[in-house]
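Record format v2
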Amino acid sequence: MTLKTGIMGYGTAVPRMRIRVEEIAKVWSKDGERIAAGINVKQKAVAAFDEDSCTLAVGAARIAVETAQIDAAKIGAVYVGSESKPYAVKPTASIVAEAIGASHELTAADLEFACKAGTAGMQVCMGLAGAGMIEYGVAIGSDTAQGKPGNALEYTAGSGAAAFVIGREDAKPIAVIDDTYSFTTDTPDFWRRQHQEFPSHAGRFTATPAYFRHVVSAAKGLLKKTNTTVEEYDYAVFHQPNGKFPLTAAKILGFPKEKVERGLITPIIGNTYSASSMIGLASVLDVAKPGEKIFVVSYGSGAGSDAFRITATDEIHAKGRRPERTVMELIESDTEYVDYATYAKHRRKIKSL
Amino acid sequence: MRNLLPLIWRKIPERYNLIGSRDEETGKEYFPQRKISPAVRRRGKLVDHPMPRDGTIYSYSLVHSAPTGFEVESPYFIAIIELSNGVRILSQLVDSPAERVKMGAKVKLVFRKIFEDEAEGAIAYGYKFKVVQ
């Protein structure tokens, strides 16, 4: 029997550059306004030349460790979930561990499950901390998502990271993770084969049998396991491959739009893949009050969903336990809009780069 | 691949966490790390010491003619940063529009990719600075 765990601290990182959906559409002679409305995404965050899923993971993890107010030497595990690793072989997690000043007595690994490897990392940390094998664990979702030029994914494939420090309930977390439930099947709706630069997807097949089946099944499974109803939750966060799917999932489950909006980030930074639902959760924690309940469901193609029931504690109001800047402030301040050529250069979509 | 691994690996403490030196006898701090304490010109009592991650621009330059590996990034700013403990270090400036790059402007450390040892080699990560508003 493991002990309950919670979120000790959290942090996010989003690159400064943005490209508008309309700017991308212009290049491919498409109606940008119609596409933006259709997917409910205005723009996406673009990682610069010198940014990758590792630098974003470090940026987010440093803030998470700071807000956790713990001794970094007590971190016993670091897991980085990503599908855009800078090295095909060599862990990002060991770089992050070194950069956050953790001790060398720790376990670390990179996880991959399309867009849900970050929440899988949270579950691993919950298990290890709850079992007493580690004191604190760091789970990170980080991606600089790749979209093939001209492909539908190019409008949404964004960049960003979110990190969570997980510890036991008695270590004064800002939010307790009450329970988790996962739903996994073999559903090939999106993938990237070895040595391929860009992922492939199965078009409309990514919706009903993939995203909606897994998100809804995991959500219903968690409600049943915890014997709760949607009315008992103050916020709901879903994985956001676009701005529309999470709202539809909320509707199917009976969550009103107001409970979803705070955690809906994809319309302004694009789909940050492994970080998507985690940045949404971070944005909700930015405003959550003690006692408020948060419902989180991630989704990873291939396919599976992890659902969490999280309750904010009194500690969330303690000094310095939340990042200096909220997710919304981070995203909305200090941005630079770039044209397609600049985006193509920074994302190395020009062959000679 | 130019096999820059020794150069990349040895600098990890400095580049990731700004670990410099502090002379316990004089209280003076140095970056990069020193083997000999410059002020007293002997070994002194040097210990590893992390530098603060904020400071101001002491001087800067805009690089148009970049060295190998940095060509596509030019033009870019490099600056001498005076850290809040008085130690001065040389660093690239990123995420900072030209109008904000001024002597005395406040900066903070960010973690970025510095260079890649071509397509097959190791990646060097480390500090760069950005101007804070």
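Chain A touches chain B at residues 16, 48-52, 54-55, 58-59, 62, 86-87, 95, 98-99, 101, 333-334, 336, 345, 353 (CB under 8 Å).
The two ends of chain A are 52 Å apart (CA to CA).
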